[in-house]
Amino acid sequence: MKIAIVCYPTFGGSGVVATELGMALSSRGHEIHFVTYRQPVRLEALNKRLFFHEVHVPEYDLFQYQPYELALSSRLVDVVKQHQIDLLHVHYAIPHAYAAYMAKKMLADQGIHIPLVTTLHGTDITLVGKHPFYKTAVTFSIDHSDAVTAVSESLKRDTISFFNPKREVEVIPNFIDISRYENKEEPCPRSMIVSGEERILTHVSNFRPVKRIIDVLQIFKSVRQRVNAKLLMIGEGPEKSKAQQFVEDNDLDGHVIFLGKSNQIHQILCFTDIFLLPSEQESFGLAALEAMVHEVPVISTDVGGLPEVNISGVSGYLFSVGDTQAMAEKTIEVLQNDSLHQQLKKGAFEQAKAYNLPEVLDQYERLYTRILLNTSYSIG
Ligand code: GMT
């Protein structure tokens, strides 16, 4: 199949999932065309089955806001025609599903009928999408996609309750390629970060308010009163300066390390002892799954899709939003009890296997085949 994938090219979860999906589909023989405003950060190398088409938005003084949707839909039309694309798969409803619907209509006008799959990731529904300013367009985009998927049962429920869509929402979860991590022999150089018995806690996110990164620091502050540890903060975002101020005000300098955005997440997770994800909302929690595949137990909140991914007492523990004291106490208990820590490490890896790439890829391939067969779509 020839598939055009639209996504955000950034470190955000939806962009990472879209890129990993495209790369995996190309290694199964499909031809994948990424259409976005920058080369996706996780896109390792382009090859004869993996293409990137940049969307340019020319600046014009008259516009207070540059019309990205317009440029994207025009680019999609060109790419579909030039490369005889069979199917459009967009990740994150806003504005991708809307722009792809316009491309589909423009193509239909030229006698080219192409199906559209929309994958919902989270904030496009739970935070931004349901805002009254966007809701009408998001509902329309969902209803007019040929198939709609959500990354968790929780997101499916939220989509139905906020939008009451006419289109069925199918769950195809996020995934991880277990084969990349099983029986890994690579060294994990803990000594680069800590010395001796010191423990490592890690948090990865886009540092937006929904991630509650001050809670991450509160948990760490309490943990450090009992356990010698460092906290690695990976990512960039609007709450970072507030977090840096908290570190300064609470004498945590030198114990909290802000590493910025990183393409080395897996190297860092390999020497992490506990992963902290105290989010206000999380439709799946890809960062937690990435930690679990490295045998890192997860201390998280119990919101959204997190209870589907992180199983309490197996791969980590779940708490109410804001209960930093309970999260800190559990972290201390795990770090001080080696047999519990080892048991959770094993449990985290076993639970990650439920989201293994090949099975999820099969689900996407079945979906693509079904919508291509169900509707007599054809080029030309
Ligand atoms: O977490 C974010 O704010 C980024 C956002 C995105 O779209 O990139 O993440 C959402 O999609 C991820 C991939 O499917 C999920 O793992 C995250 O849970 C989800 N974030 C939220 O629901 C807050």
Low-pLDDT residue spans: none
Helical proportion?
A: 40-55%
Order of SSEs: EHEEHEHEHHEHEEHEHEHEHEHEHHH
Computed structural class? alpha/beta
Domains (count)? 2
CATH top level label of the largest domain: Alpha Beta
Any idea what the shape is?
Answer: globular
Topology, pairings included?
Blueprint: E1 2-6, H1 13-27, E2 31-36, E3 50-54, H2 68-83, E4 87-91, H3 93-109, E5 116-120, H4 123-126, H5 132-143, E6 147-150, H6 153-163, E7 169-171, E8 199-204, H7 213-224, E9 229-234, H8 240-249, E10 256-260, H9 265-270, E11 274-277, H10 286-292, E12 298-301, H11 306-309, E13 316-319, H12 324-336, H13 338-352, H14 357-374
Parallel strand pairs: 1-2, 1-4, 2-3, 4-5, 5-6, 6-7, 8-9, 8-11, 9-10, 11-12, 12-13
Helix pairs in contact: 2-3, 3-5, 7-12, 10-13
Note the main attributes of this structure:
single chain, 380 residues, alpha/beta, Rossmann fold, 2 domains, seven-stranded parallel β-sheet, six-stranded parallel β-sheet, 14 helices, 13 strands, binds ligand GMT
Compact overview of the structure:
The protein is of the alpha/beta class. The protein has two domains: 2-175 and 357-373, Glycogen Phosphorylase B (Rossmann fold, 3-Layer(aba) Sandwich), CATH 3.40.50.2000; 179-355, Rossmann fold (3-Layer(aba) Sandwich), CATH 3.40.50.2000.
Description:
The chain has helices at 13-27, 68-83, 93-109, 123-126, 132-143, 153-163, 213-224, 240-249, 265-270, 286-292, 306-309, 324-336, 338-352, 357-374, and strands at residues 2-6, 31-36, 50-54, 87-91, 116-120, 147-150, 169-171, 199-204, 229-234, 256-260, 274-277, 298-301, 316-319. It has 380 residues and is α/β, with parallel strands linked by helices. The chain folds into two domains: 2-175 and 357-373, 3-Layer(aba) Sandwich (Rossmann fold); 179-355, 3-Layer(aba) Sandwich (Rossmann fold). The strands form two sheets. A seven-stranded parallel beta sheet has the order 3-2-1-4-5-6-7, with helices on both faces. The protein has a six-stranded parallel beta sheet with strand order 10-9-8-11-12-13, with helices on both faces. Helix 2 crosses helix 3 and helix 10 crosses helix 13 (338-352). The chain is globular and about 70 Å long. It starts with a strand and ends in a 6-residue tail after the last helix. The mean pLDDT is 94. The chain binds ligand GMT. Residues 12-15, 17, 92, 121-123, 126, 151, 174, 206, 208, 210, 281-286, 304 line the site of ligand GMT.
